[in-house]
Amino acid sequence: MKVPVWNPAVEFLEREALERLQLANLRKTVAWALKTPFYRRRLAEVGLHRPEDIASLRDLRDIPYTTKEDLRESYPRGLLAVDLEQVVRLHTSSGTTGMPTVIHHTQADLDAWTELVARCIVATGASRRDVFQNMTNYGLFTGGLGLHYGAERVGMLVIPASSGNTSRQVQLMRHFQTSVVHATPSYLLHLHSALMDEDTDTSPPSLRKAFIGAEPHSEETRRKIETLFEIEAYNSYGLSEMNGPGVAFECLYKTGLHLWEDAYLLEVIDPDSLRPCAEEETGEIVLTTLQRQATPLLRYRTRDLSHLVGGHCPCGRSHRRLARIKGRSDDMLIVNGVNVFPSQIEEALMKAPEVGTNYLIQVEKRGALDRLAVKTEVHAALFAGDARVLSDLRERIAERIRAAVLVKPSIELHEPGSLPVSEGKARRVLDLRPAF
Ligand code: AMP
Ligand code: ZN
């Protein structure tokens, strides 16, 4: 099989040369980082004052980790390494209010990101001859614009459909012979049931590939998508802190996700002891940006759990592979591709004076999609009055949570003392979705 490739000079770079490039880029990144108030302080604490203090890649280990909390505390500009005039765009993390995490980009940052996404697209065998329908949200969420610019760079015909509106998605696919789509796996399964409800009973014959990501899913889910649509589906991994999509992607061989190591320095660590994991040993992915000027991040703890795949991929790329993401080392939920922290729901819930202290967050599958439900106890007096008062309150709470986490839950109101009280540590989250 001829291996399609976007940038052979970098994608097949020998290990030694790749590591030399990483070291040079790490020094540049430390130089950028030292321009930010946050890292100047953080790096001074470990005696790192100049990029030349980094003598080898091993010195990375002396650099402290960066966490999501650090990003939140540096909001909005504590991590900005360039003059504001050089910044051309910003993205914030999905589903957060109050103190989101923000990533600024220069034009060079956006160009570098676009290059990475172009590599991913071409690695799957997609090309300028394809019609690409991007079914993920265009906006602060990075899946829309991220894939969009990469696909344009490749020269595909791009349909910026954005997310939702299933009947229009189907219409666009049929009218313009869409051959490649990008969506969350749960949305593609939902789309398939919508297609089956149509009289035509077939998926658009032009479709041949899907890029699926933004949420955890199993090999079985991938196979299901492939069988139902009679297409090939490729796993796409990324996070807004590392630009978004384009961090790691499967190639034609689907033997794991190649992570672009000229752009990201990869570590896998034990989330508790913080010691480095061996190949094939599951741990938390830690990433350092190697090309980003406006918001350099050093040793960012992604909280995503995976392991390094050993051996070589038949495609010949030298960039190492991650196994599909197995879960998270924190309590973040991903609901239809949107990141939701239980603490944000609690905060929104507790703003309603009628609400008591006991509540339960439940996530389950309804058809192909995730459904978020919040059960909460409210003052007893409310149940004695008009039923409309309760339905108004339900709507008010649902709206408030939607505003906070971007997902609208269904709300169940309960009398005080009727929700289960767990002994010891309260169990507030019940994830009833099948294990993946
Ligand atoms: P966001 O910053 O909103 O793009 O969300 C990024 C998070 O989504 C990651 O940290 C992962 O937890 C999750 N995620 C993204 N892509 C995948 C994927 N292919 N498989 C599993 N989880 C993913
Ligand atoms: Zn490969």
TrEMBL record:
Residues 81-287 form the AMP-dependent synthetase/ligase domain. GO terms for molecular function: ligase activity. It comes from the Bacteria. Pathway: Aromatic compound metabolism; phenylacetate degradation. Pfam families: AMP-binding, AMP-binding_C_2. Keywords: Ligase, Nucleotide-binding, Phosphopantetheine, Phosphoprotein. Residues 337-433 form the AMP-dependent ligase C-terminal domain. It catalyses: 2-phenylacetate + ATP + CoA = phenylacetyl-CoA + AMP + diphosphate. Its EC number is 6.2.1.30. Coiled coil: none annotated. Belongs to the phenylacetyl-CoA ligase family. Catalyzes the activation of phenylacetic acid (PA) to phenylacetyl-CoA (PA-CoA). PANTHER family: ENZYME, PUTATIVE (JCVI)-RELATED (PTHR43439:SF2), PHENYLACETATE-COENZYME A LIGASE (PTHR43439). This is Phenylacetate-coenzyme A ligase. The lineage of its organism: Bacteria, Pseudomonadati, Pseudomonadota, Gammaproteobacteria, Candidatus Competibacteraceae.
